[in-house]
Amino acid sequence: MDFSIPTDYEPILDVVREYRRRELDPIEKDFLLAGELDKETKLGLLAKARDVGLWALEVPEEEGGAGLSLMAIAMIYAELAQSAVPVHLGGSPEPMLR
After folding, report:
1. N or C terminus: fewer CB in 10 A for the chain?
2. How far is Cα 72 from Cα 39, in angstroms, rounded to an integer?
3. Model's pTM, two decimal places?
4. Are 96 and 47 in contact (CB under 8 A)?
């Protein structure tokens, strides 16, 4: 059985790794000390995730989402789990509520 990462997943995983390095890693210590994120930080993280294409992951592309498989989504969350900062990559292709 082949457990290697499919090559077509590498580009999105590279995006996730860069997002984690730029957005999550720098605030991880503060999050661990405070035990929570303020609303402004949460919204900022979600907005930046959406900006790089990490939004509406399971929504079909023809409906404005990323159209990713469950395996790809699981791999994305496994990569994000490398940080203690919790991020839920939401939902709908509609604009985020602020």
Report:
1. N
2. 28
3. 0.85
4. yes
Q: What does the alpha-carbon distance between residue 88 and residue 23 come to, in Å, rounded to a whole number?
A: 14
Yes or no: say if 67 and 3 are a contact pair by the CB < 8 Å rule: no
Q: What's the distance, Cα to Cα, between the start and end of the chain in Å?
A: 46
Query: Is the CB of residue 48 less than 8 Å from the CB of residue 23?
Result: yes
Per-residue confidence of the chain (98 residues) as pLDDT tens digits?
Answer: 887 888 999 999 999 999 999 999 999 999 999 999 999 999 999 999 999 999 899 888 888 888 999 999 999 999 999 999 999 887 766 654 44
* String of DSSP letters for the chain: ---SPPGGGHHHHHHHHHHIIIIIGGGHHHHHHHSS--HHHHHHHHHHHHHTT-SSTTS-GGGTS----HHHHHHHHHHHTTSSS-------SSPPP-
